[in-house]
Amino acid sequence: MKHIVQIIDSLKVGGAQKLLVTMAEVLQRRDETLTVISLDNRESPIRQQLHSLNIPILSLRGRNKLFDPKRVWQITEFLRQGQFDVIHTHLTHANILGTLAGRLAGIPVAASLHNVRLDRRRYSHSKALLENMILRYGTHRVIAVGHVVEEAYRKQLNGKRIEVIPNAVSAIPALPLAARLAIRTSLVGDPERPLLIAIGRLTPQKGYPDLLAALDRLRQSHPAVAVIIAGEGKLESELKQRIQALGLSNHVFLLGRREDVPALLAASDVYVSASLWEGLSVATLEAMAAGLPIVATRVGEVPRMVVAGTGITVAPRDPEVLAQALAQFLESPAERRLAGDAARGHVSRCHEANAWVRRLLALYGELYTLASPILSQEGV
After folding, report:
1. Lower CB count within 10 Å: N or C terminus of the chain?
2. Does 310 share its domain with 358?
3. What is the residue range of 314's domain?
4. Backbone conformation region of residue 379, classed left if phi is above 0, alpha if psi is from -120 to 50, else beta
């Protein structure tokens, strides 16, 4: 396998996009080459990171979000001329358009599923049905980022083979003490304050109202506690209003989009996620790779990720229990350190980037071998 093209809805910061960077970093040390097609042309830190790794990026924003025949033709022509060996698509629009273009260009397609369900505020029921049909009949292989994701789509894809390849992250080194204190001071003033961190888009999926409710309880027993939230999204204004209404302005800090997430993680004490649903959260893996203990809701792949000794899992939509779990770590620095070390070790063993890329390359090679006779019969 020599030339891989990854097609994705956009390069805005998210778990699927971060995986493109992880793959690009690993492939720098291998013979394979990578090209990225984005169905959006906006600037982002992910785009900049890919550029810094010398990854070619083709941006093809259509006249509308999906149904633009000209864009399908453009993708198809680019694929035909690029002599690609395999296509790997990510997220709903790319899964649909990338698969159609791949079939027209005669290139085998693998499509990834990154979550247990679509956000119905962004994707209509008809679009979800179209994606399922394309996945069933158009792709050569479907990849799920976790077992829960595979289970969620098994019936929808009606027996289509789904390969489970869990997400991976690169190691995140510890910060020198002086740098760690400087970051904490810049974020919350006093570097000695207990510092929690949450990462993710400001969307209903992430359960931020529950996190704020938990912080409202937690500050009663831990008045110095602070939480930083790195991410942007449509709920920003609503969350700011809620923070003010609860009197949490000195406890909750919305950072917006950040390009220094690894450093933020390395400077924090505990990672917290109040998500209502998930696939296999790359942000949680990054926190574990940074050596943070985890407090997370028991959704998606979290029970498989946050294994015994690496953190505490709680039921979603229960701020009281979430606050109690956070308090447990804040009150025991020794337990916090042990859990963080265990989290780092678990990610190193089970979600290591080089091993993840080897699995993907093996799958690419397999589907290309399987698809070649079919493509020959089709006269491609």
Report:
1. C
2. no
3. 177-350
4. left
Do 339 and 109 form a contact (C-beta atoms < 8 A)? no
Closest C-alpha among 262, 282, 302 to residue 174? 262
* 8 A C-beta contact, residue 297 and residue 274: yes
Nearest to 93 by CA among 141, 140, 42, 128: 128
- The one-character DSSP state at 65 is S
**Do 215 and 138 have their domain in common?**
no
Question: Structure pTM?
Answer: 0.92
Longest C-alpha distance within the chain, in Å? 71
One domain for residues 320 and 265: yes
Q: 93 and 204, same structural domain? A: no
- Order across the sheet with 109-113: list the strands: 57-59, 33-38, 3-8, 86-90, 109-113, 141-144, 162-164
- Going across the sheet that includes 294-297, the strands are 252-256, 226-230, 195-199, 270-273, 294-297, 311-314
One-letter-per-residue 3-state SS of 87-104: EEEECHHHHHHHHHHHHH
Same domain for 53 and 101, yes or no, is yes
Q: Which residues on adjacent β-strands are paired with residue 227?
A: 196, 252
- For residues 360 and 346, membership in a common domain is answered with no
Q: CA nearest 102: which of 130, 70, 131, 80?
A: 80
Q: Which residues pair with 272 in a beta bridge?
A: 295
For 108-143, write each residue's pLDDT tens digit: 999 999 998 766 555 677 888 999 999 999 999 999
- What digits encode the pLDDT tens for the residues 285-302? 999 999 999 999 999 999
- CA-closest candidate to residue 126, choices 66, 204, 69, 40: 66
Distances (CA, A) of 127 to 3, 42, 59, 92, 121: 30, 23, 22, 8, 12
